[in-house]
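Exercise: predict the fold of this chain.
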Amino acid sequence: MKKPELLAPAGSFEKAKTAFLYGADAVYCGTGSLSLRSRAEVDDNDLAKTIRYAHSIGKKVYAAINIYAWDEYYEEIKKQAKMLNELKVDGIIASDGGVIEILKEYAPDVDIHISTQANTISYHSANFWYKNGAKRVILGREMNKEQIKELMDNKPDDLEVEIFVHGAICFGYSGRCFLSDFLASRSANLGDCAQSCRWAYNVYVEEHNNPGNLMPVEHDEKGTYIFSSKDLCLVKEVPEIINMGIDSLKIEGRLKTEYYLASIVNSYRNAIDDYIKNPENYDYTKYIKELEKTKTRGLTTFYFNDRNNKDFQEYDGKQYNPDYEFGGKVVEYNDEKSIIEIRNKLVVGDTMEILIPKNITPVEFKIEKLWDTDTDEEVECVNPGKAGQSIKMKLPIKCENGWILRRKKTK
């Protein structure tokens, strides 16, 4: 049984470190204005630092140049390709045929990964990209498992296959959408999506026999979220995916927090490892329990099990978790008073959970005391007033720097 790679998003160097700490084998990053998440926080220095760090611990980094590029972008693409070749990045993710030709010339030592944006949904398309220099194809999320199996049976043996297993689903076809550009002059295909599919809309229909007479479609005070999808979750299907021989399982979310990364990566890390060790007793429910604590929308298997599935729209627009939130990150462990970088309000008496890398069961505890980091005086609560603000608290177990704390919200 081949153990697949677990691939996580990294919107910054710190997020990459969190992903690796919680079990990712590789991360994928943007490249400034040339990827489809141009608002992620990775600049060239961060990218170089991420690659060097990953290689020092035996991990991999893939960089995205997956925009559909106008001609004026190509000089910058050439510079990025040369830089990535010199940095020895492990792969470059691309979708535009013109960009791929540039990569062959200016980054000849780097593997080419065909982005999901290229809509690879057949073995014929996969074979085309293989003949044109691709090392890996990232399949479209529109495929179901029978279609993926057929592709796996008919692709070249040394062509790697990557699929998405968790994260946001885009209203557009394999992420290609013009709605944002039309409504907000921000092109999703150039990395500047305004997430128009998540907006609330008031929808009207016009009576055919009475033009101009607009009747509203039923909705509540928030409008109706007719384009917003639930989030993909294939943790139950991990055994099937591994048995197919898929090379890489990908988590979406370069703009997500370190808390999100820690929780989602840790859940899939445990799911993969547990199935490989003991396939007969795979129990997905314990991973779902953890994922539910982090989700901000409903979860769906999309088309993976059923091409006729219609349960993937999030009509009520939910984008928050009512039960849990990011509490903080351990920046300096001490037996008595550890320093925690806080991310939300913390109060004495709050119920917290420590997310332990490669352990699916978090450690729960209540905050007994808090101390001001500068004065060492006891305080009752702390609010995150600025970036990097910290507090001291006693932790119930020995922790390592970078471990994430989850806060249970009070009702």
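Check your answer against the key: The longest strand covers residues 160-168.
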